[in-house]
Design goal:
Blueprint lengths: L9 H14 L4 E7 H9 L2 H4 L4 E8 L1 H4 L2 H11 L4 E5 L13 H6 L3 E4 L3 H10 L4 E8 L4 H13 L5 E8 L1 H10 L7 E5 H7 L5 H7 L3 E4 L3 H17 L4 E3 L11 H10 E8 L3 E10 L8 H5 L14 H5 L31 H15 L2
Parallel strand pairs: 1-2, 1-7, 3-4, 3-5, 5-6, 7-8, 8-9
Antiparallel strand pairs: 6-11, 10-11
């Protein structure tokens, strides 16, 4: 962004913080859904600017973090097969499965590649007709359109050696799952601006109405987040529960119709298991029947099994906002970025990684 410094102006941030202090009359708890927002909050100390009455808790908005162990194991099983090239985004390679991670598979001599787009995996398949190329498709609605585009391109090229292991998940069902949990203490949400740039925010409106919570579509820079918090708190103080759009420079109510149509062409809504949380109905995307020839799980007959999380990892409680990363007994000891127990410590959007990088590590270096 050319004028990104405008959204990081210290004086403007302090002014927003003062407005918030003047506005708040009681205790409020707000959840930022997106892991990218969590990292900005920790990096710029936004939570430390807020009055004690305002608590920020971190939601399940990290797609790498919520990818179930079973799917990681399937990717590892496929990557270990002969004549397979498995492609994935970089932060997936360090996410632990039940026994190892994809970095370990690559270290043992198998062809595991980091790509920046699923379209790159399609190109690799076209260039290597004697290999079976699999893309591990992970993400929220933000990345689903380009995954769909890769499938459409592979179909257009009539590729018979390209496959997709799909792990796309949807944000609105996750918000409803958080709000429906018995111990929920969330009173307002900051919705992920990049997801809403694709999907818009129409589908959030019935959630706000049903659960009586304000939802503010928010960007990722410090002033975006502070303004989003102010907008959310203003609604709470006034007893309102509506969807507001702070991120107007990127988000429209109806979203991106072309991207949505591409997703609907390729995917259908399915139930999905979330790592650390469990099954959430209608929270995932799966390939439609007409594109099942590209389904990697079907093609390679990977085994389906249930895997238990490490008993030392409280990722589920962190993802649902019940606890913060530094409340985990394993944080910074048994669990570090070099030796993670869970995905939240290695993903670029993981809450545990944010706490380790911006609070724990800096605190230790200043001792």
């Amino acid at each position: 962004m050319k004028y990104v410094s405008e959204y990081r102006d210290r004086a403007a941030a302090e002014e927003y913080a003062e407005r918030i202090r003047q506005l708040v009359s009681r205790e409020w708890t707000i959840m930022e859904v997106c892991g990218g927002q969590t990292h900005s909050i920790l990096k710029y100390g936004i939570d430390q600017l807020l009055p004690e009455k305002v608590s920020l808790i971190h939601g399940p908005g990290c797609p790498v973090c919520v990818t179930p162990i079973e799917l990681i194991d399937q990717a590892i099983e496929i990557a270990g097969k002969k004549d397979v090239i498995l492609c994935s985004f970089g932060d997936m390679l360090r996410v632990p499965g039940s026994v190892q991670d994809l970095i370990g598979v690559r270290a043992s001599g198998h062809d595991v590649r980091i790509v920046y787009s699923p379209i790159d995996a399609v190109k690799i398949a076209a260039q290597n007709p004697m290999k079976q190329v699999v893309f591990f498709g992970v993400g929220f609605e933000t990345t689903a359109p380009v995954t769909a585009a890769a499938i459409i391109q592979a179909a257009h090229l009539d590729l018979n050696n390209f496959y997709m292991l799909v792990s796309h998940v949807l944000v609105p069902p996750a918000i409803k799952a958080v709000l429906s949990s018995p111990g929920c203490r969330v009173q307002g949400f900051l919705a992920a601006g990049h997801v809403c740039s694709i999907m818009g925010y129409i589908e959030y409106e019935p959630i706000a109405k049903k659960y009586n919570v304000p939802i503010v579509v928010t960007g990722f820079e410090p002033l975006d987040i502070l303004e989003g918090i102010h907008m959310c708190l203003k609604q709470l103080e006034e007893g309102k529960a509506e969807v507001s759009n702070q991120y107007m420079r990127s988000v429209r109510r109806s979203g991106n119709p072309e991207a949505i149509e591409m997703m609907r062409e390729v995917f259908e809504v399915t139930d999905r298991k979330w790592r650390g949380i469990g099954a959430i109905p209608e929270s995932g995307l799966g390939l439609k029947k007409k594109y099942m020839k590209f389904d990697a799980a079907e093609r390679f007959g990977v085994s389906e099994h249930s895997v238990e999380e490490s008993g030392d990892c409280i990722s589920g409680q962190v993802l649902t906002g019940e606890k913060k990363p530094d409340e985990c007994p394993a944080f910074g000891g048994k669990c570090t970025p070099e030796h993670p127990l869970g995905a939240l410590m290695v993903s670029s959007e993981g809450a545990c990684a944010a706490y380790y990088r911006y609070r724990y590590r800096l605190t230790r270096s200043n001792r």
